[in-house]
Amino acid sequence: MANHRAVLAAILGFLALFSTSAAFSEARTGGTLVVATTNDTPDLDIQKYISSSQHNALMPLYNGLVEKDWTADEPFHPIVPGLAESWSVSEDGKTYTFNLRKGVTFHDGTPFNAEAAHFNFQRMTDKDFPYYDQQAGSTATGVLKGLKGSRVVDEHTFEVQLEQANVGFIEAIASLPNYYMISPAAIKEFGNEGIGQHAVGTGPFKLVEWVRGQRTVMERNDDYWGKKPYVDRMVYRPIIEPAARVAALKAGEVHIAWDIPVDQVEPLQGDQRFNIFLRGLPATKVIECWQASGPFSDRRVRKAVNMAIDRKTLAEVILKGTAIPATQLYGIGSASFDPDLPIFEKYDPEGAKMLLAETEYPDGFGFFVITSPENEPVAGALQAYEFVQANLQAIGVNMEIRVRDNAEFGAAYMRVKQDDECVTFDRGYDTDFILDMGYYGGQCVPNGLNNQCFQNAEVDRLMEMAYTASSIDEWRDLHRQAQQHIIDDSGSFPLVHGLRPMASMKQVQDWLPAKAWLQFPGYAWLAEE
Prior knowledge:
By secondary structure, this protein is of the alpha+beta class. Helices cover 31% and strands 20% of the residues. The protein folds into 3 domains: 1-45 and 203-279 and 500-529, Periplasmic binding protein-like II (D-Maltodextrin-Binding Protein, domain 2, 3-Layer(aba) Sandwich); 63-184, Dipeptide-binding Protein, domain 1, CATH 3.90.76; 284-498, Roll (Dipeptide-binding Protein, domain 3). The protein has a 7-stranded mixed sheet with strand order 8-9-10-1-11-19-12, sandwiched between helices. A 6-stranded mixed sheet has the order 14-18-13-17-15-16, sandwiched between helices. α9 packs antiparallel against α11 and α15 runs antiparallel to α16. It is globular and about 70 Å long.
């Protein structure tokens, strides 16, 4: 693991030098920045979805009360004020009070104030509210359990109430753009369905055009309350096929291409026209299998499968150094990522066979995984699963790979599964809530996001303790303890931590990819060619 840390330090050191050198040039205004993204957004309602493809396409148009600084070159992205200049929490930890910025307007000219913030939270929490949206509410309360309601204190003071104390509340709403603010006037005008065709926020860019499957076009908001972009326009082009994204970059059709395929990283590194980045992201590629019944309900079976996976070869050979072997559930860029943990499970196929012989499946068994590579930015998804498939065959376990589109994958993720059913996933988000989302026993699908129905009483106890922690440091420590219990229980099958290859033309200045699912290139500028 020390070698992995040295490689990461070298990469990040180089990138820091690159970023610093670019800062000596005087930023140039004007031009259109074109970004090739990995997936399309189904509509323009930022509150309805938890998908990073949705959030990335819309984040430049909106703001939250608090946000993460996705441009910061730090070990993990810090929380910064957004539409709230400051905030405080009550002694019992159940009420958060936000002091809002004055003079902020939505793109339609209507004011942002406490009434507007209250409207947005009612839309997510109050089922009797005329503009309550079931999907927005399900997403908001599913990710952040205990969200109770809100109230207006005065024009620029706003409160959010929780059912129970939660010291991680600010971390969650800063990391998840489905808590960003939409113009109440626009929702009233277009309705909950119609607002999906009209993005009206307070962000640094304003919507010009959205053509589903083709482009999202936005222009600089010259009335923006914060730092204004340099470029006149930014265009997001969803190009799902990785090779096509690279082709568009090489042809000069786009300035930035996200999530470069494994086999294109080295050739691009040798091309002087481009910058290549291997920053990492807070995600771990995992296989998650149904544990309420069937073979994976036996911890020994899960442990044997983990022991059969050669993570080092997968990361260094199959994925050609675009990932590092998984050591944990948290990914690079998460505040709780621990660089000192050993590889999740030592590769030991003979030991795996011996352990499997103690179970009901001494001669092995079969199962299938549902995967949707378009939803997995860790490079080389199918190559990874085919390699794991070969690893497991060596211990008599047959893994069938079923490639499905994003909609079918989403349905599979959220349903009660068959005994032999699994999904693949890049588990994680830009918040440490990944454990609560995926491993809390009381949140089994379809009543939560624990899609494999992992259950461990000690993990649940630690997570519940974390909600009433006295500080964010104590909160993170309790989650780290919970993670260790999940690791000891072989709670899932982590494969690699992705370094997320990204590329840009040399013309793009002052852009460093975030170590995150969310990317904000809106403060980059274009040098003259």
